[in-house]
Amino acid sequence: MWHCIDLESTRLQLDSNVQCIQAIHFCSPDFILILIHRLHSSIQQQVFNDNKTLHLPAYYTTGWMETLDDETLISDITIPGTHESLALYGGFIAKCQAWSLEDQLKAGIRFFDFRVSGENLHIKHGPIYQRTTFPEALKTIKTFLSKYTWETVLVRVKPVHFLKEKVPNLVAKKIEKDPACWVSGAIPKIGEVRGKIVFVQKNAFRLGIRLYETDEHNDYIVTNVEKKKEKISKHLNATTCEQYRAERVVLSYSSGTGIPRLRPYINPKGLAKQINPWLYKHLDDESKKTNPKPCFGVIAMDFPGLDLIKKITEFN
C-alpha cells in the first residue's frame, strides 16, 4: 500500500532536529552534564538498589569528602553507611546489600559494619559465611584510599559466633601498629585521618573512637513499616543534639527485618524498598528546614541507591 508523505512537515521536523543538535554542540561539557543529571532526576530517583553492578553517572562524585574543612570533627559529619555491609549471600533472609565492598566505596559509602567470626576472621551474617574475610576487606579499603587519599573510612568490627571472645585480639594484631589505621579513642578531625581507616569501638571491640547507637533493644525487628519509619525519624532527631556527638560518633539504622517474628515478607530487601524512598523524602524535607543543616552522624542502610547516598552527603 502506498502512503502519502507530508513533505513540508517532514522538512520542518528535520530542521528542528538539526537546530537541537547544533544547540547541544555549542553547549559547554558542564552544561551537558547538568542537563543529563536533571533528566536523570526527573525520570527516577535511585534510592533503592538491588543490582549488583554499579553504574556511576558521569556527574557523580565518588570523593565527596575532598571539600570538607580539615578542622571538622568526624563526629560532626553526616556519613552514609551500610548495615551488615558484606551480607551479599544467604537469600532473602540474610542478604542486605547488592554491591561489593569496592563498589560501595565508589558509590560514596564511608561507614562499614563487619560481623567477624573465628580464627580466620570470616565475615558472616548470622551463621552464613559471606565468602570473604576481615583481612581481605581491609585490603580493599586500603586500595581505595590509596587512590582517594582525601577520603576516610569508618569501620565497625562486631565479633560474632565461633571464637567470639578471641576475635578482638586477632583483629587488633592486624591493625594496632598499622599507620593507615586510626585506633585512638580520641575523635579526630577529618584533616588528621584523610587516607586512613578510622575504627569504631563498641562492646567487646575496644579499639578506636566510641560509638553511640540510637537503636534500642530489638528495634531491628519490624512488624509494622509505619512504626519503623517513626522510630527512624525519632532516632535521627536525637542525633542532631550536640551532647551525643561530643565524644562519640552517633549511628542510626534504617534497616530491619520481620523474619524473627515470622513475617518473611518484611525481609531486609522488602523493607528497604519501602524505607529508602521514605528516607530520601524525609531527609530532603529536613534539608530545607534549617540553616546550617543538621548533622545526623552515620546512617546505616540496606540496599541504598546513589541518590539516597548523595542526599546524605549533601548535609555536609
- Beta-strand content bin: 15-25%
| Ends apart, CA distance between termini | 64 Å
Helix content: 25-40%
* Class of secondary structure makeup: alpha/beta
Major β-sheet profile: 7 strands, parallel, barrel
Number of helices: 10
Strand order, main sheet: write it out. Answer: 1-2-5-7-8-9-10
Radius of gyration: 23 Å
Task: List its traits.
10 strands, disordered N terminus, seven-stranded parallel beta barrel, alpha/beta
Structural overview:
The protein has 316 residues and is α/β, with parallel strands linked by helices. It has 10 helices and 10 strands. Strands 1-2-5-7-8-9-10 form a 7-stranded parallel barrel. A hairpin with a 2-residue loop joins strand 3 and strand 4 (128-133). Helix 7 (225-239) crosses helix 9. The radius of gyration is 23 Å and the shape is globular. The model is unreliable at 1-21 and 37-43 (pLDDT under 50).
Briefly, what is this?
With 316 residues, this protein is of the alpha/beta class.
Question: Which helices and strands appear, and what pairs or packs with what?
Answer:
Blueprint: H1 7-25, H2 29-43, E1 79-82, H3 91-94, H4 101-107, E2 111-117, E3 122-125, E4 128-133, H5 134-147, E5 153-159, H6 167-175, E6 181-182, E7 197-201, E8 209-213, H7 225-239, H8 242-245, E9 248-253, H9 268-287, E10 298-301, H10 306-313
Parallel strand pairs: 1-2, 1-10, 2-5, 5-7, 6-7, 7-8, 8-9, 9-10
Antiparallel strand pairs: 2-3, 3-4
Helix pairs in contact: 4-5, 7-9, 9-10
